[in-house]
Amino acid sequence: MAMKKPRILIVGCGPGGADHLTDIARRTVEQAEVLVGAPRLLAAFPASRARRIPVTADIAQALRRMVACRGRHVVVLVTGDPGLCSLARPVIRRFGRAACRVIPGISAIQAAFAAVGVDWLDARVVSAHSRVPSVSPADLAGVRKLAVLAGHRAARSWLAAVAANLG
Hints:
Elements (H helix, E strand, L loop, with lengths): L7 E5 L10 H8 L3 E4 L1 H4 L8 E4 L4 H9 L6 E5 L9 H8 L4 E4 L4 H9 L7 E5 L17 E5 L4 H12 L1
Parallel strand pairs: 1-4, 1-5, 2-3, 2-4, 6-7
């Protein structure tokens, strides 16, 4: 029995710039009937004729709009790594793994460490994307390499405290 082709493709768009898109990401977007993502990601594909579903803070609304697109080729655009702190998690939770396929891109972590020419094998990764991290800034004082996936406004003061502790 042949596996059914996933109808929702979750595409990693890297840190968000066109220079960080992979060829498979571009091809997947070209074939989309529906594009879902943050307005800045949707704007990165002006030539696409796909129907657009912008995702704002109300992710539940975007998921409801996606339900109405069943049977169409839906592409969900995410920044960074689709496996970390992204829209991929609620999409997969809502529609199931069998209905989704994740196409990874260049992650923000890869791009940041490459920009400074440092490996990230022993880096500590902390999410401040959707909330203030539960780890205290003091607990990170001895960390030599730290990647913080930022995005939550309330995490700014937390980040300032981390920076002060790291010197």
